[in-house]
Structures are given as C-alpha cells and as structure tokens.
Amino acid sequence: MALVLHSWKANKNAYKAFIAAEYNGVKIDLSPDFVMGVTNKSPEYLKMNPIGKVPVLETPDGAIFESNAIARYVARLKDSSLFGSSSIDYGHVEQWIDFSTTELDAHISTILRPRFGYGVYHPAVEEAANAALKRSFAALNSYLASNTFLVGHSVTLADIILTCNLYLGFTYILTKSFTSEFPHVERYFWTLVNQPNFRKIIGEVKQTDAIPPVKTPEEAAAAAKPKPEPKKQEEKPKAAPAAEEEAPKPKAKNPLDLLPPSKMILDEWKRLYSNTKTNFREVAIKGFWDMYDPEGYSLWFCDYKYNDENTVSFVTLNKVSGFLQRMDLARKYAFGKMLVIGSEAPFKVKGLWLFRGQEIPQFVIDECYDMELYEWKKVDISDEAQKERVNQMIEDQEPFEGEALLDAKCFK
Ligand SMILES: N[C@@H](CCC(=O)N[C@@H](CS)C(=O)NCC(=O)O)C(=O)O
C-alpha cells in the first residue's frame, strides 16, 4: 500500500508532508474522498487518530497523526539532508520545529480561530497573542539577518514546517504593516515559498491585505451548528481554518500593455546583451543607446538601504538572487543589473533597472516586497555622468566606484 494522507488539499498541515516528500522523492497520495467534518468523525478515522483532527498519514505499517510527526516520518524515509548533516544540525532542526509550533503557530492560531468562528474572541487574549507573535518574529528576524536557512546552507525540515506555519499567518492575518517590521523574515518567507518544491505544492502565495473580521456570536453559533452532510468534496469544509483554493479569476490586462507602442523591443536588447561577447562597449552599450526609447521606457538606479547588514557574502548574494527571482513577474517589462560591491563586508548592493513606462510599475511595487528595501532614483539621461554610470553597470565595470565586485547579476 502506498502512503495516503487523509486531509483536504489546501491544508498547511498537509503541505508539510507533501513538501518533505518532494524533497525526498517519496510518493504520497491524497485521500480522494476526504470530507472535513465527516470523514474525520467516522469510526475508521477515529481508529487512526482518536482526537479526530486532520491530517492522518496511513502507511503500510500503521497510521500516524500530528502533522509534524507525519513530516518527520516522511523526511526519515530516505537518507536525505532534511535533518542536516550532524547531531548538532539535527538538534537545531528539532529546536526550530518546536519554536515554529509553540512560538509561531500557537499564536497565529489564537488570532485566527475567532475569525473562523471557533472559540470565544477576547481582545486581551488577542493582544497577548499579538505581542507574543511580535516577540517571536523579532527573534526570528535577528537570526535570519545572517542566515539564509534555519539550519546550515540548505532547506531542512525545520524550514518546511516553519514556512508552512508562516504561510497560514501571511495568507490570513499577517498584513504588510505587521511583517514589514521584520524584513529578514519577509525575505526568508518569500525565498522559501518560491523554492520549486514548495511552489509545486502550495502554488503562488499572496499576502493578505486585511485581517478578516471576528465572527459575531451569532455567526459563530451558526458556524458551529452541524450542517447537512456535504455531498461533494468541493463543498466548503466546516472546520478548516486554513487556506482554501479560490476559483481562478479572469486575468486583467497589465496596464503596461496599454501604453503606446515603443520602438524599443526589449527582447532585442536582451538578445544583444546576451550575445555580445567581445567589444561590449562598442557593440552592446552603443546598441543599447541606439535602441533606447526615453518615452516608452525609463531607467532607474537602486541602492540597498541596509548595506550595514550585508555582513556575510553568501547571504548577500542569496538576497539579491531572491530579489531577481521575485521580479520574474516583470520579465516582459524590465531588464536589470544588480552589483554586489566590495572585497570585504559589509557589501554594498546597487542596481540599474530598465522599466517599461515612465514610472516603476505599480504591480512590481505591490507584488515584490524587495522594492522597498532599496532607494530608487530615476536616471537623468541628459546628465552624461549618470549615463556613464548606466554604461558601467550594464558592463559590470570593475572596479566600480573604486571597489571590486563580489558579483554582478543580470535580470533579463
Ligand atoms: N496538532 C495537530 C493540529 C491538527 C488540527 O488542528 N487540525 C485541524 C484542521 S487544520 C482540525 O482537524 N480541526 C478539527 C477539530 O479540531 O476537530 C497537527 O499538527 O496535526
């Protein structure tokens, strides 16, 4: 018998096992007839998990309940690096799993439950949970200032479990006004949910714009009333305080597609940039200015606001790579160069961006949180010194502004 997970699909507690399975190359099937509030109350289910909570993993050797235990079991099925590579790594993985469960998930759940009509809303309880959550975020933020992952230099089970717990928070209650105080946690979260093995399971993640209102006692009572037996699995699960998939909405046209046509064909420039191997100044840079359309496009310098924090080279490089990954949504409308400058810490991060239109596109500002980590300045192309700086950034000139380059990354 294969492994079968009893849950509805969009449950962050089920994601933990599915993501671990992706990393380990393990196959888990989702139970096809699971109906929340019905299946988990059946005698067969209660035999597997006497408390009737979800998920449960059915294995050839018996069932396992508790989502962290399930994820640990899946992680151990293969000799992978999901527990790190030493005893101390293993200890740290377990430490962060416990932190994630008791210091993050518990408080997120306290804030979330009354919003799903469970339990009684009490402002003092919520205030205490909020304060505790801030304390945990501050601790996590300071740790992540110099660490890309929770343990070692790659994803472990600790990252999987903690990110799934943050996912519930980010998608329901942790608005930008809460998370922006913790830029390293934000960066970590977006980096992790965009790892291919996470994305494959969770899909695209969108941070909530608003905290849902608390349900009134009447609404809560109505929600608590037993509902007629759902007929189809698609019916909304009653007791599922987790992300549910929304029907896809028709895609609105990007406003940049409505701009007057430009003589500059971005792909042509990107091809010229990629294909020029010699005489870069004479061929690519000259070609750029020949093509450049100052009405259809604008150029921007960006300067990282927190260079003092760039104390570890690989963390700084990962930060920039993460930014470029998140800019993926702007590929049709942008070209960018990001320079990581200096031969020793703290490293400076500076960049040059070409955007369609005269402003930084609003959807980029809205969707890519990195934008606010940089100071942006429009390039004045009538100023020869600024134009020359553009050239130097495009061609990765070294030294740049008197310093060596640690790396230069291109978004094309
Ligand atoms: N600690 C458990 C929590 C499981 C849990 O609370 N599951 C919720 C759905 S996400 C549930 O089954 N609620 C129904 C209930 O409380 O009866 C785990 O991580 O598996």
Structure description:
The chain is an alpha+beta fold and 412 residues long. It folds into 2 domains: 1-249, Up-down Bundle (Glutathione S-transferase Yfyf (Class Pi), Chain A, domain 2), CATH 1.20.1050.10; 256-411, Alpha-Beta Plaits. It has 15 helices and 9 strands. The strands form 2 sheets. It has a 5-stranded antiparallel β-sheet with strand order 8-5-7-6-9, sandwiched between helices. A 4-stranded mixed β-sheet has the order 2-1-3-4, covered by helices on one side. Helix 1 links the parallel strand 1 (3-6) and strand 2. The protein is elongated and about 75 Å long. It binds glutathione. The site of glutathione (GSH) has 12 residues, from helix 3.
What is this structure, in a nutshell?
By secondary structure, the protein is an alpha+beta fold.
